[in-house]
Amino acid sequence: MNKQFDVLVIGAGPGGYIAAIRAAQLGFSVGCCEFSAYDDPAGEPRLGGTCLNAGCIPLKALVASSELFEKVSHNLEDHGITTSGVGIDIAKMQLRKEAIVTKMTAGVKFLFRKNKITLLHGRGSFAGRTDAGYRVIISGKEGEEEVLAQKVIIATGSKARHIPNIAVDNVTICDNEGALKFTEPPKKLGVIGAGVIGLEVGSVWRRLGAEVTVLEVMPSFLVAADESISREASKLFLKQGLHIKLGVRIGQAKLTKHGVSIAYTDDQGFEHTLECDKLIVSVGRIPNTEKLNLEAIGLQADERGFIPVNDHCATTAPGVYAIGDVVRGPMLAHKAEDEGVMVAELIAGQKPHIDYNSMPWVIYTTPEIAWVGKTEQQLRAEGGDYKVGQFPFAANGRALGLGDAEGFIKMLADGKTDEILGVHIIGADASDLIAEAALAMEFRASSEDVARTCHPHPSLSEVMREAALAIEKRALNM
Ligand code: FAD
Ligand code: NAI
User: Fold this and answer.
1) Which of 262, 282, 283, 415 could form an S-S bond across to 198 if both were Cys, CB 3.0 to 4.6 Å?
2) Structural domain contains residue 303
3) Angle at the Cα of 78 from the Cα atoms of 74 and 80, rounded to 5 degrees
4) Do 316 and 297 touch, CB atoms closer than 8 A?
5) How far is CA 469 from CA 29, 35, 371, 432, in A?
6) Is residue 164 part of a domain?
7) Domain final position from 354, 381, 402
């Protein structure tokens, strides 16, 4: 007899595994299939999807190692600390990263066992619907099995978009998979796309000694960020030696004896060739929908491959939901997770809701960049009445003590009601500082609420309070 589940989740990335856990907590019988994009050495699928295997977690391990290396190599003199013979063993750095991935992915398997979630090894695809539920075929190494589920949550994620004529081999020309596995820092690294991956991964290898050139098709970069943050980032990245060439058109990339040569046209129309040891292609990601056989249940992906859903991630097939990178909205792990929780709770008859406007973004460069809510250019375009408060880390004692005093926090609030509309940070620990702003916005706090909240001294969080005070031009330390 076929296995039957109340809820079947397809894909065990941060969207899928969190949805499965929440559904199990709510008392449903849950199955989750994972097709083994990332195997462990024993051939078992590693759970956790892109995030745990080839995205957030391994990349942030490399960010941490490379930041530490840069700090110890160049930034300790001010503290009176002298160092000599500082080196880095890249193989060991990569082993540390792998150990973190192994620990985290094994942790998801443990959570599946703890919550009695049935893990099905194989690729899920729809076969149709009967009175008993949705028929889903799981195709694995050991063959095929058909399961039945009352509700299905599609959480199949995304993969790197490639450029025609630039063949990714993940050795010399790499997407996110190969770019996190270099065994030594390339002398010269080319990056196509000054987006989130280009900036984060490019910065990792720059800190470790590579000369990095980023080629970006648009005339500006970080367009989703507040304009003053992008300007500040551009200034700081240039100072760090990250070369970003804007408005380029990429031509052919050819493998050479020593690496790869990329032809491109600059923003003035002049032709150039960039010779480098390695090339990273980071020009966005595309949803994984093509092998789901959505037609069998009357669904169709849109022209960009996303599964159309409503505000609650419901598709037009009753009881079938889609979450995470495979649907509209930002491709972020915490967005996938929140949608997973929301859908499981909806299935249980609860009334959850996600406020996408209070969903934070973080870019793990040095310094970090983070924001939540609207940018100043959005508010200006909307023509609304708004106020701005900004405060620099350079006027904060804790930031100076840490030797991390670059950047600022900018708060935007409604001109009449004072409700916080957006918070934008470029500076140390922006990834943690932004959580206060996200919470404030979730509670629809005013800038005065933050300004009147006692913040610990000395701490970087005081910059948030000063930015709130600056809205009414009453910052105290400036
Ligand atoms: P995924 O994580 O892609 O998981 C989908 C899973 O489904 C995969 O395991 C896949 O094997 C499986 N699957 C696909 N098709 C099938 C099928 N038919 N049957 C069974 N299984 C299937 N986001 C952040 O918020 N913060 C970060 O710092 C961050 N860093 C990133 C760094 C990099 C280099 C990259 C590439 C991404 C990063 N992201 C980050 C984005 C984040 O990884 C994704 O938004 C997140 O993983 C999406 O989760 P998901 O569950 O929707 O999909
Ligand atoms: P991206 O969308 O962030 O950036 C892609 C960049 O490539 C854009 O600037 C785009 O203009 C440029 N581009 C596109 N085609 C090009 C071409 N032909 N030539 C030159 N430039 C071109 O995509 P990226 O960096 O690949 O990351 C994918 C997604 O992964 C992100 O959007 C984000 O959602 C997620 N991610 C999140 C992180 C985080 O939250 N910290 C870290 C890394 C990835």
Assistant:
1) 282
2) yes
3) 105
4) no
5) 51, 51, 18, 20
6) no
7) 354
The per-residue pLDDT for range 290-343, each reduced to its tens digit, is 899 999 999 999 999 999 999 999 999 999 999 999 999 999 999 999 999 999
Which residue's CA is the nearest one to ligand 1's atom 53?
157
The residue segments making up the domain with residue 455 are: 358-470
**Does residue 166 sit within a domain?**
no
141 and 13 co-located in one domain = yes
- Name the domain boundary from 304, 325, 354: 354
Cα 432 to middle of ligand 1, angstroms = 22
Residues annotated as catalytic (active site), given as ranges: 457
Q: Which ligand is nearest to the CA of 368?
A: 2
Name the phi and psi angles at 397, rounded to 5: -60, -40
Is the domain of 329 the same as that of 397?
A: no
* The ligand 1 atom nearest the CA atom of 285: 36
Domain CATH for 267: 3.50.50.60
Distance CA 318, CA 82 (A): 65
Same domain, 362 and 431: yes
Identify whether residues 110 and 132 lie together within a single domain: yes
Phi-psi region of 415 (alpha: psi -120 to 50; beta: other; left: phi over 0): alpha
Number of domains in the chain: 3
Residue 41 banded pLDDT, cuts 50, 70, 90: confident
Find the angle CA(359)-CA(364)-CA(366) to the nearest 5 degrees: 135
Q: Is the CB of 45 under 6 A from ligand 1?
A: no
Whole-structure pTM value: 0.97
Q: Does ligand 2 come within 6 angstroms of the Cβ of 264?
A: no
Nearest ligand to the CA atom of 280:
2
Nearest CA to ligand 1 atom 43: 51
Which atom belonging to ligand 2 lies closest to the Cα atom of 361?
40
Q: Is 247 left (phi over 0), alpha (psi -120 to 50) or beta?
A: left
Q: Convert the pLDDT of each residue in 208-233 to its tens digit.
A: 999 999 999 999 999 999 999 999 99
**CA triplet 66, 68, 69: central angle to 5 degrees?**
65
The answer to whether residue 20 sits within a structural domain is yes
- φ, ψ of residue 369 in degrees (nearest 5): -120, 135
* Ligand 1 within 6 A of CB of 48: no
